[in-house]
Write a structure and sequence with these properties.
single chain; mainly beta; 6-stranded antiparallel sheet; 15 strands
């Protein structure tokens, strides 16, 4: 299982906890973890001035016999024409995330693309893992891998 919470900026991957925004990222560009002290909110969005942003997490399954993979992302904010496009791929099978189940291949790739928006604050119009600093609810990204055992 991999969980991410934006308010603590930590990842829990299986039994290992990694802190720091990029702790478990396989790739990332044009992205920042933004803390709004005045609104008491924290989230992930594009860097100011970036036309697009990308986050990608990879999980190597190391030949394990896997029955089910479930991916769920919470607290996605999209406005002013901006979008967060969430996909999960395993082998040659990809799908959009809205609470996705798929049959795994040798590895799993979860990708978030941040695009669109209008005006000077367009970089903030697509947000992922938006949470209150005062009352966080997490995890905001949950990846569950269920082993198949006979």
């Amino acid at each position: 299982m991999m969980d991410l919470t934006s308010e603590a900026s930590c990842y829990k991957e299986f039994l290992q906890i990694r802190c720091g925004f990029a702790g478990s990222l396989a790739a990332g560009s044009g992205i920042q973890r933004k803390v709004e002290q005045d609104w008491r909110m924290v989230y992930v969005c594009r860097e100011e001035g970036a036309a697009e942003g990308l986050l990608e997490w990879n999980v190597e399954l190391d030949g394990a016999e896997i029955d089910t993979v479930t991916v769920e992302a919470r607290e996605v904010l999209q406005k002013e024409g901006a979008r967060v496009i969430l996909t999960v791929c395993s082998g040659d099978q990809c799908m959009m995330i809205a609470g996705a189940d798929l049959s795994p291949g040798a590895s799993l790739h979860v990708k978030a693309q941040f695009v669109g928006g209008q005006g000077a604050l367009a970089f903030q119009h697509a947000q992922l893992f938006r949470a209150s600093l005062d009352d966080p609810k997490g995890p905001h990204l949950e990846l569950s891998i269920i082993n198949y055992c006979i």
